[in-house]
Each structure stands twice: as structure tokens, then as C-alpha cells.
Amino acid sequence: MLYNAKDLMLEAEKHGAAVGAFNVTCMATITAVLEAAEELDSPVILEYAPIHDEEGIISLEEIGPAMVAMAKASSAKVGVHYDHGVDFDKIKKALDMGFTSVMYDGSILPYEENIENTRKAVELAKKYGASVEAELGKMAGVTMTNDHVVENRAIDRSNFTNPEQAKDFVEKTGVDMLACSFGTSHGLYTSAPRLDTELVKELRQTAGVPVVMHGGSGVSAEDYRKVITNGVRKINYYSYMAKAGGEAVRAEMPEDGVLFIHDLYKIAKKAMKENAKEAMIRFMNKQ
Ligand SMILES: [Zn+2]
């Protein structure tokens, strides 16, 4: 069933839980994530990030319609989200395809410009009944600007989201959820992340909307528990699931070295599904 991300978030809030938003890059990732959600009876968000087009992996035009169709056909509650949008044509294209939420990422822009563009994204999404995520503060790790990929591994507290600014930003833009910087990083972690979990609580209270955590794979069980309890309702998760898929293929390489592409997908899907399930169980925040 296709759901609006905002509704999934509000429901998660009632249960003190978060919804996993899994980036998908092929049919194997879509089916891995959906089967995991169906078996656990967990809500889920399928997410497409334009960085995967930039890297030559798959385009929105190729995978977007499949994401929406498979979300509709699933027995789980599924949101379909466009991640890290910087290009309004692409954001509109995703909405035309039936995506139920979009992110506008103006985090690298001057504050007023981020407000202005985010407001434009909110107006556009409203016409489709879709919800909008925006970003305030700067995330470390691999990210994308208008047309190129940038990498900045340093986690710098001065880039963390400011609660007062978050309040002002949400009031001026009308966004439904806010991606905040509080210590996570995109991609694989080179050292254990140190999250400011108290800042999450403050941000949730001042901003008045659910907090989104990017760079959500590779975080300790304890930190997941704390940030969800403090107001994170959407967790973007990809790198460690994708790595689990790749590692399974390497581990199960046939002795004769002959590997067919369909077997590769099958092995990777099984491992990614298990990894997604573990993440979903954590996000339910019951343990
Ligand atoms: Zn992100």
C-alpha cells in the first residue's frame, strides 16, 4: 500500500518508533526491503537518491516507476521518497511518478536561499498531496551538490543544526520533517560516530516536526535507542545494507569462480533482506 511519509511518521511517533527509509538501487534492493517490511509487518520508505544516477548506477526514470508500482502492490505500508533533491525538474518528475514525499536539500546554500527554495518545494509538493523534507546544518560524508559529488569526512560541531534556527526555518517554510546534523555522516564510518542525542531532543521540541537522521546505518544500538526516543522518526539507511549484499556475494562465490548475474542478485538480496530486517527491528525501538 502506498502511504504518505508524513502519515507513517505520525504513526511512528505514537509508538515511539522510527521508520526506516532505505535507498534502493536495483530490483534486488527493492524486493529485499519490501519483503523485510512485509515479514515484520513494519512500515517502510523506499527512497531514491540522485547520487546513484550521478555515479552511473541507476536513474530516477528507470527505477522510480518500479518503486511506486511495487509499493502499491506490497501488503506493507510503504512511502516512496525522493532523497536529496537539488533540481526542481527532477523533484517534479518524482512527484509526477507518484512519489509520496520529496526532499529538497538546500543545506549548502545561504540560509535565506535555503528557506526560499524549500518553500517553493513545499508549494509544489502540496499540489500532489506529498510531504516535504528539508535539511538544515551540514552533514559530513559523501553528498551531492547541484551537479557533482563532494566528500568531507570531518564531523564538525559548528555544522550541527541550531535549534533556534530550526524553529525559524520550519515556521517560514512549512516543511513536514527536518533532516538535522548531530553527528552522523553519509557512507561508511571510518571511526565510531559520536552523536549528540540531547541535541535531537531539543531540535524535536523547537522545530516542532519529526527529525530525520541521515547516515543512519553503522550507528550503535544504544545511539539508535536514544535518538529515536528523543524524536528521530525517519532514518535513512543504505550503506551497511549494500555492503552486506556485496560481502555475501564474495563469501558465497562458487569454487569454480563461475557466477551468474541472477545468482548474484539472489545471494545479495537474501543478505540485504536480513540486514534490513535487523534495522527495522531496531527502529521499532522495543528492545
Ligand atoms: Zn542524506
Which secondary structure elements does this structure contain, and how are they paired or packed?
Elements: H1 5-14, E1 19-23, H2 27-40, E2 44-48, H3 51-54, H4 60-73, E3 78-85, H5 88-97, E4 101-104, H6 111-126, E5 131-136, E6 141-144, E7 149-152, H7 163-173, E8 177-180, H8 197-207, E9 211-213, H9 221-230, E10 232-237, H10 239-251, H11 261-284
The site of zinc ion (ZN) has 4 residues, from loops.
Distance between the termini: 27 Å
> What top-tier CATH class fits best?
Alpha Beta
Q: CATH superfamily, please?
A: Aldolase class I
- The CATH topology assignment is TIM Barrel
Overall number of structural domains? 1
Write the element-wise H/E pattern from the N-terminal end onward: HEHEHHEHEHEEEHEHEHEHH
Helix content: 40-55%
Major sheet: order of its strands? 1-2-3-4-5-8-9-10
Low-confidence stretches: none
Q: In DSSP terms, counting alpha (H) and pi (I) runs of 4 or more, how many helices? A: 11
Overall radius of gyration = 18 Å
Bound molecules: zinc ion
Query: What's the total number of strands?
Result: 10
- Tell me which CATH architecture applies here: Alpha-Beta Barrel
Determine the mean pLDDT: 93
The general outline is: globular
Query: Largest sheet at a glance?
Result: 8 strands, parallel, barrel
Alpha-beta classification: alpha/beta
